[in-house]
Design brief:
Elements lengths: L12 E5 L3 H12 L3 E5 L6 H9 L3 E3 L13 E4 L8 H8 L4 E3 H8 L4 E6 L4 H14 L4 E5 L5 H4 L8 E5 L2 H5 L8 E4 L7 H4 L2 H9 L10 E4 L13 E4 L14 H17 L10 H8 L6 E6 L2 E5 L6 H10 L4 E6 L7 H10 L2 E7 L3 H8 L6 E3 L3 H11 L5 E4 L12 H13 L4 E3 L7
Parallel strand pairs: 1-2, 1-4, 2-3, 4-5, 6-8, 6-9, 7-8, 9-10, 10-11, 13-17, 14-15, 14-17, 15-16
Antiparallel strand pairs: 12-13, 12-18
Helix pairs in contact: 5-10, 5-11, 12-13
Length: about 450
């Protein structure tokens, strides 16, 4: 039996489709709470995963997805990487078996708490971190989860000491949602990204819009002014954030971080109106923003500042990184192309104070085409290691070497973190390297 939302009122058995970080968290929740599960993984399982599933009595299949797990399932729970048009998903719908994103599953089984969900092309993680920091300063207990690292379902049964759940929601997750409803929904910004997955910018926008679809008049939706009227979905009270006035203490922050700060402040005030901009501590909030591979100052080599922005996986994030660096720099671009937004990046490159641009990886040809013949000193290599060597060869003392790839990492690495760790290791192995821990670019 299903409720009005289409989610089963009681779930006894789930088919877990996809067994990455999210799938593991869903299976672990099921084990902790006596829910039967069947795991279906398209690839080959790790030996450790296979052993854990067997130890916990969970049936599974690997190296391909079939309908086997649907026989007893009350619901199918999707990992974010699984398309909503997957053949097993279509079969489940034909059998009237509910198909849930991990966000929906977690929201259904979790103890009811106020939820703030943040989406956008860039700035999601920073905004979520700022929200949690501000709430903590106001003695509001929060828990951060979602696309930022820990799946919502991993904390769904550990919320007794939590007042507010703060969720970073990706377009992949939201595209799978039809019932998810946060109390406060935040859009940081929107620019072309993940077009290969969604098919078009319109479909990408629609995925983000699902965050607002089911909101009620008692809920709050937070937007940048430019996007407010382009998201008519939902019935929430609408708030714009980017016309707020910030204390002069924040004027040294890069523009994109000030935007994230204002979005976070609007979200916090929706649940704790006593929070005031005048009470914010810039240094405390800067510490909350620190995250690996996001404008991370690694150190210096012969007077060249090394900045690791491996988390830059789209054009808009690389544009923001360029704007945040003072003085001349050498930019390292490359990886697996997202297929959109690079014309704007090319314009930014042409207007920036760049010593050179080094392109690498699968997207090198595309970047060469975009940047050739416009007065940009362009170097093409194959790998990140070669890009570092070429970039340092062009940089001069006082310059920055900015590793802001503007692409996903999947041509050569498991993810942006794997790419970022590799970059840091290669830098640390260079002669003349000295670590530097104070981030002067923020």
């Amino acid at each position: 039996m299903t409720g009005a939302s289409g989610v089963p009122q009681t779930i006894h058995c789930v088919l877990v489709l996809g067994y990455g970080v999210t799938g593991r968290a869903v299976a672990a929740y099921c084990v902790r709470n006596g829910i039967a599960a069947f795991v279906s993984e398209a690839g080959e399982l790790l030996d450790a995963d296979r052993a854990w599933l067997q130890e916990n009595g969970i049936s599974f299949e690997e190296c391909g997805n079939t309908d086997r797990g649907l026989a007893d399932a009350d619901a199918v729970v999707l990992s974010p990487g699984v398309s909503s048009e997957h053949s097993v998903v279509r079969t489940a719908r034909a059998r009237c078996t509910p198909v849930l994103s991990e966000l929906e599953f977690a929201a259904h089984v979790a103890v009811r708490r106020t939820t703030i969900a943040v989406t956008g092309t860039n700035g999601k993680g920073s905004t979520v971190s700022l929200i949690a920091a501000m709430l903590g300063e106001a003695d509001v207990r929060s828990c951060v989860c979602g696309n930022i690292g820990t799946p919502y379902i991993a904390v769904a049964d550990h919320l007794n000491d939590v007042d507010v759940v703060v969720i970073e929601a990706s377009s992949f997750q939201l595209a799978q949602c039809s019932t998810f409803r946060p109390d406060v929904a935040v859009l940081t910004n929107l620019s072309p990204d993940h077009i290969r997955r969604h098919g078009s910018m319109a479909a990408y926008r629609e995925a983000k819009a699902r965050l607002f679809h089911r909101q009620r008049p008692s809920d709050v939706a937070v937007f940048p002014e430019a996007w407010r009227d382009r998201f008519p979905e939902g019935a929430a009270r609408r708030v714009t954030y980017d016309e707020a006035t910030l204390d002069i203490r924040f004027h040294r922050w890069p523009e994109h971080e000030r935007m994230n700060l204002m979005a976070a402040l609007a979200a916090c005030r929706a649940v704790a109106p006593r929070i005031s901009a005048s009470d914010l501590d810039p240094d405390f909030l800067l510490a909350a923003l620190a995250e690996p591979f996001r404008m991370e100052v690694v150190g210096a080599i012969d007077g060249v500042l090394i900045i690791n922005d491996s988390k830059s996986t789209n054009a808009a994030s690389a544009v923001a990184a360029l704007r945040a660096v003072d003085g001349s720099c050498v930019l390292l671009l490359g990886g697996y192309s997202k297929g959109a937004g690079y014309d704007a990046l090319a314009r930014e490159v042409l207007s920036s104070n760049l010593r050179a641009v080094v392109v690498f990886g699968a997207a090198a040809t595309e970047f060469e085409r975009l940047l050739a013949g416009d007065g940009v000193s362009l170097i093409r290599v194959d790998t990140v290691e070669q890009a570092i060597v070429a970039g340092l060869g062009r940089a001069r003392p006082g310059d920055a070497l900015l590793f802001s790839p503007a692409c996903s990492s999947f041509d050569q690495y498991a993810d942006y973190a794997d790419r970022g760790r590799t970059f840091n290791r290669l830098i640390a192995e260079r002669n003349g390297f000295s670590p530097r821990f104070q981030d002067t670019t923020r």
